[in-house]
Design brief:
two-stranded antiparallel ribbon, mainly alpha, single chain, about 240 residues, elongated
Length: about 240
């Protein structure tokens, strides 16, 4: 059924963000289990028939489900993050029905066009990864919101690159990804004009307007465990 379908995301996190959400989920699970145990000790008194005991257990399970639905219990990790993603979208004014992007635009592998080259995992930046399963409709909202919010800036960055090139760092990273010899990538990059400082500043302002699914989900993870959005030490300033 469509209502049960999930969209899986793999999100790079700092150590602190990863630890924060894992510990928060564990604390929520422990709190829920403690409540269940105490309710059973309170209600499952000696002398009950098997039918009466089964009815009480069923009532306790229903109460747990209700408390998860209202947010009194956090639920499992995906449920905690799902709630935080909805809150993050609302806070940013992105909780709306977005049109479907052009075919293939949000399914392309790799980083979104126009975003700065990512720092390698484990080099003072994002050191952990987390898999997040969101309900299908919510996952699509995240992907579409990121696409349409960034569309104008991405197109401007494409025009910038057509004029000035991507730079040596980007050329080398893309060459490594595509299996192109580094010397060929360097030769191609050397043929581009050298962008003046004013053009580089324009590029940085445009990059700051690009919102990725990772940006949204990292903010939601920090929201989930009550932390503040934490950027890796080597990350360039970006719009949150």
């Amino acid at each position: 059924m469509v209502s049960m379908a999930k969209v899986k995301f793999h999100v790079a996190l700092t150590k602190a963000s990863h630890r924060g959400v894992i510990e928060h989920a564990k604390n929520e699970r422990d709190r829920e289990e403690t409540w269940i145990r105490e309710r059973r000790e309170e209600l499952l008194v000696p002398g009950l028939s098997r039918r009466e005991a089964a009815t009480i257990r069923r009532t306790i399970r229903a109460e747990v489900t209700r408390k998860r639905r209202t947010g009194e219990f956090g639920g499992n990790r995906d449920e905690i993050i799902t709630r935080a993603v909805r809150e993050e979208l609302i806070a940013r004014g992105l909780d709306r029905k977005w049109p479907k992007p052009p075919e293939g635009e949000i399914d392309a592998p790799g980083r979104r066009w126009g975003t700065p080259p990512s720092q390698p995992m484990g080099e003072g930046g994002y050191t952990h990864r987390l898999s997040i399963n969101l309900p299908y409709t919510l996952g699509e909202t995240v992907r579409r919101a990121a696409y349409w919010t960034s569309k104008d800036a991405v197109e401007a960055l494409q025009e910038w690159a057509d004029r000035w090139g991507d730079g040596v760092d980007v050329a080398l990273r893309e060459a490594e990804r595509d299996g192109i010899p580094a010397e060929l990538a360097l030769a191609a990059a050397a043929g581009n004009l050298s962008a003046p400082q004013s053009a580089l500043e324009i590029r940085e302002r445009l990059r700051a307007q690009v919102l990725t699914t990772g940006d949204l989900l990292r903010a939601a993870v920090d929201r989930a465990h009550g932390g503040h959005p934490e950027l890796p030490s080597t990350h360039r300033p970006q719009k949150q």
